[in-house]
Amino acid sequence: MEKIPVLAVVGPTASGKTSLAIEIAKEYHGEVVSADSMQLYKEMQIATAKPTVDEMQGIPHHLLDFLAPDVSFSVAQYAALAHQTISEITARGHLPVMAGGTGLYVDAVLDDLIFAKIETDEQKRAELWAFVEAHGANALHERLREIDPESAARIHENNVGRIVRAVEVYELTGITMSEHQRNSRPKESRYRSLKIGINYKDRAVLYDRVNRRVDLMMEQGLLEEAVSVRNRARKTAVQAIGYKELEPYFLQQEPLDVCIERLKQETRRYAKRQITWFSRDPNILWVYPDEQTPQEIFSKIKRAVENFIKV
């Protein structure tokens, strides 16, 4: 069976993935498929750095802004929607361009993982959320570390929904989430992929971009957005970097400037974890805006994409 070509633009937050994916899509009749676990949610525009209509430049974008903020959503559900979306884009004669920093989402689709059907247990899930309310996310993350250190290393303590799910899976099946995921890899993917990574050789340059992005988010109204989301969807809100860090300000426990500084720090840490995830993949073609001109970068990408399309 002829494999479906899919291009993916990956890398850490604030690196410029979205604009690069859009430029590639413009050049090669592409459509962008978001691979960001938080951009799925409605109303969370600023904290998740969703592209605006102007920034999209007329390029169709998919799997953005369609999920209510209080709805849980698994990687298996994302993969199913992404497969369908990619099929539809391909049928239109266009190039699917995945873009995002959620490495698990990208791998789940491009490696064509088959997920074992693991039922949810609402009572168990409610118990775990009650544990978080009583003891904090850190305590449940530590509990996960004891039973599944591999998943605990991969899942940030802010991502409470995924921590809850990982503990729930183990307590329901006796098998860790890590083991379930290893067992989910099929023999061969339906896709052939070209992965382009964007990063910075000088980490200080990336961190400065992160800091400036946070400042811009505050100017755009992140504080007001956080108030709106926290009042209606607390479980989702605590997962997104940009909301949890402001919570001490809302509770009048810390001044706003301290919370903003913590938000910058947590976002830098998130970027570092993303780099660690993607750096394990030897098949990523990396570009570095702090060492290459935009013309050099796009020339390199153009050669790679055109060779990829010719196959």
Automatic annotation (TrEMBL):
InterPro entries: Dimethylallyltransferase (IPR039657), IPT (IPR018022), P-loop_NTPase (IPR027417)
The keyword Metal-binding belongs to this UniProt entry's keyword annotation: no
Alphabetical keyword list: ATP-binding, Magnesium, Nucleotide-binding, Transferase, tRNA processing
Gene3D superfamilies: 1.10.20.140, P-loop containing nucleotide triphosphate hydrolases
Cofactor(s) listed: Mg(2+)
Enzyme class: transferase
EC number(s) from the headed UniProt entry: 2.5.1.75
Positions of the UniProt region annotated as Interaction with substrate tRNA: 36-39
Positions annotated to bind substrate: 13-18
Record GO biological process: tRNA modification
Listed SUPFAM superfamilies: P-loop containing nucleoside triphosphate hydrolases
HAMAP family attached to this UniProt entry: IPP_trans
Name assigned to this protein: tRNA dimethylallyltransferase
